[in-house]
Specification:
Blueprint: E1 39-40, E2 42-57, E3 68-77, E4 81-92, E5 95-103, H1 106-112, H2 123-126, H3 131-140, E6 145-151, E7 167-173, H4 177-187, E8 191-192, E9 203-209, E10 212-216, H5 218-222, E11 257-260, E12 263-276, E13 297-302, E14 312-317, E15 329-334
Antiparallel strand pairs: 1-7, 2-3, 2-14, 2-15, 3-13, 4-5, 4-6, 4-8, 6-7, 9-12, 9-14, 10-11, 12-13
């Protein structure tokens, strides 16, 4: 009998396949650019669902040049975020460590998020009344990176049941540390919109948490092949777990366990449109499945994004770049047909 040969099922690049620590992604690094002006590098929004658009292909080298093509898009609702503070990092022998931070006065926090943001913030942040003093200390420190601390505003949308803001860091780029601190001091306590961060047509990285399936067996988790019907006692398991000589089960052996609810980053996702629901309605007839209506600002991202509806997705500047030429496009139609088969 000939020896069967096939690619290994289940990439080790995604190990360990454990549950995410939180329901939204954690951005581990922010790219460096040659920007001269200070700008924010990230934003966050809630995934509403998918639809499709018709756009005119303006790539002269394309086979469909000048024709209308159908493009699947993901609708992400992105209400304004509020800047709560700034954090500076210094370089140590052990890598980057926080050198200090400055927060907006607790009175402004209470006005913006009454009795909600206190669940997410440390008690010291709520007692911060010496903002100028903290900014002065940050200015004297030898900083290598400056990031702002911002909070989402879920109370302004209806698609997610949780109204507790999520607090996260957003990178700053452009200028030196003094310029970034000055920008943060001017904008602390203010609102930040998606239009202040990204423009239409740019490539971004989408960081999210995939849909969770709980504990699953090896067949569903890794796509293994079923055993023969003549096999003894089992069909949805492996033939063996390794050799006798090793004496233990190696980590490369595919086994059952947590499936889904993993943090994943999708690179070079293109933002096709940034609009407001007041100007251009995007909600389909009957609403988005398991989400409802989009009533604030939203973005249309080409292709799919990780996670189910209502999942918080984070965007950041593209880190790997793209070899694709950013040809202009002309959207001629956005589908708002019912997603419920009506």
């Amino acid at each position: 009998m000939a020896k069967r040969s096939h690619p290994r099922r289940g990439s080790m690049a995604f190990s360990p396949r454990k549950r995410s620590a939180r329901h939204f992604g954690h951005v581990k690094s922010w790219p460096e650019t040659d920007a001269s002006e200070v700008r924010v590098q990230g934003f966050a929004g809630w995934k509403a669902g998918m639809t499709h658009i018709m756009a005119r292909d303006l790539n002269p080298r394309s086979n469909s040049a000048g024709q209308e093509i159908r493009i699947p898009v993901t609708v992400v609702e992105v209400p304004k975020m509020r800047v709560l503070g700034v954090r500076g990092y210094k370089m140590t022998p052990y890598g980057k460590q926080a050198a200090g931070e400055a927060w907006v006065d607790s009175e402004q926090i209470s006005e913006a998020f009454p009795q909600l943001v206190e669940r997410r913030l440390h008690k010291n942040a709520l007692k911060s009344h010496e903002t100028d003093k903290h900014f002065e200390a940050l200015g004297k420190a030898d900083l290598v990176e400056v990031r702002i601390i911002a909070a989402t505003q879920p109370h302004s949308i209806t698609g997610t049941p949780s109204k507790t803001p999520e607090v996260m860091e957003l990178g700053l780029v452009g200028g030196d540390s003094a310029a970034k601190l000055e920008w943060a001091k001017e904008n602390i306590g203010q609102e930040l919109s998606i239009g202040d961060v990204f423009t239409e047509g740019v490539f971004v990285d989408a960081v999210g948490v995939t849909k969770g399936y709980g504990w699953q067996g090896v067949i569903k988790r890794f796509g293994g092949k079923l055993q023969s019907h003549k096999n003894s006692k089992k069909r949805r398991q492996h033939g063996n777990m390794g050799d006798f000589g090793t004496g233990y089960v190696r980590k490369t052996i595919r086994q059952g366990g947590q499936t889904g609810y993993h943090q994943r980053t999708e690179y070079n996702k293109r933002i096709l449109s940034i609009a407001s629901a007041e100007d251009k309605a995007i909600t389909p007839a009957g609403g988005f499945l398991r989400y409802g209506e989009v009533n604030s600002e939203y973005v249309l991202v080409k292709g799919s994004l990780p996670g189910p509806a209502k999942r918080l997705v984070r965007f950041r500047d593209a880190t790997r770049g793209s070899d694709k030429t950013e040809h202009p496009f002309e959207i001629t139609y956005v589908s708002t047909a019912s997603k419920q088969g009506v």
